[in-house]
Amino acid sequence: MSQELPDIDEVLKEALKHGIGGIHPGEDQLKALVESNPDGPLHFVNLLSFHPEARYPADHEFAERRMTGEEAYNGHYGPVAFRHVTQRGGRLTVLATVEQAIIGRDAHWHQVATMEYPNVAAFLDMGADPDFQAATVHRNAGLADTLVLVTRSLLPPTAP
Length: 160
Known about the structure:
Oligomer: single chain
């Protein structure tokens, strides 16, 4: 069952505060997500590549700390994101290191994380939450690159 989707203009206005494109969803990508089938569950497959050293804004309290991008992301952004996903009925289904590429080009990804969201509204609601938004500074400081794929299972649901 679908929850009511937030107004896309409000979502975009909030997203612009944190950046569009690059390691953030682009305007067209957010609009396409809202216009897609909003029902779930949906799995967001996150390919993550980290900076060797976290890149905080100069005026941030962590700017002088010497931590890796992975430490900033996993230690400061990840726990907040996980809490917000689970509060909205989602769950973490995969969290793994990338060991190697065995087929295709060798990629620069360090980790893979797959989050399951009950529907599009849950993802958008999380993104609009001020507590979640405050944690994105750690995401931005840690990530060198990311690719997030929104997927929908082709397999029938399994019985509990």
